[in-house]
């Protein structure tokens, strides 16, 4: 089994879509850990605020199969990939960590995800997996979060049904 950390986000009916995503992940993987959801401004474009959270799960699925399955979940929940990369979305689920694997490609698959520089990715991950060690930086997520420029700032938390 491999421990996987996912980053989830939505800015179109975000409570609905994040709740659905958590339900689908729980149905497929069983016992998962879900972070609080945080409201943050859109990054890279003007749009409604996002809700972002994180999920930690264990799986035997190989990375490429997991990534394809997550893309299918996004598509099943109305994800439109026809627009610009930075745009409104019903659901975005990214594999941020897949055990201690470091990957560059294929396509846009990069592990660990470069979006870790954003508080909306790092904070929820540090909430649920503070002792997880980044295979590149060799720091725990808690250490990385403490070093982040937004550490200590208040974040608007939104309750999602099915959170743990």
Summarize the structure.
It contains four helices and eight strands. Strand 6 and strand 7 form a beta hairpin.
Give the SSE map.
Blueprint: E1 2-10, H1 14-29, E2 33-34, E3 37-40, E4 50-59, H2 63-76, E5 92-98, E6 103-104, E7 110-111, H3 119-128, H4 141-147, E8 156-158
Antiparallel strand pairs: 1-4, 1-5, 2-4, 3-4, 3-8, 6-7
Helix pairs in contact: 3-4
Question: How would you characterize the overall build of this protein?
Answer:
This protein is of the alpha+beta class and 164 residues long. It contains 4 helices and 8 strands, in the order E-H-E-E-E-H-E-E-E-H-H-E. Strands 1, 2, 3, 4, 5 and 8 form a 6-stranded antiparallel β-sheet that branches. A two-stranded antiparallel sheet has the order 6-7. Strand 6 and strand 7 form a beta hairpin. The longest helix has 16 residues, at 14-29. It is globular, with a radius of gyration of 15 Å. The model has no long low-confidence stretch (mean pLDDT 89).
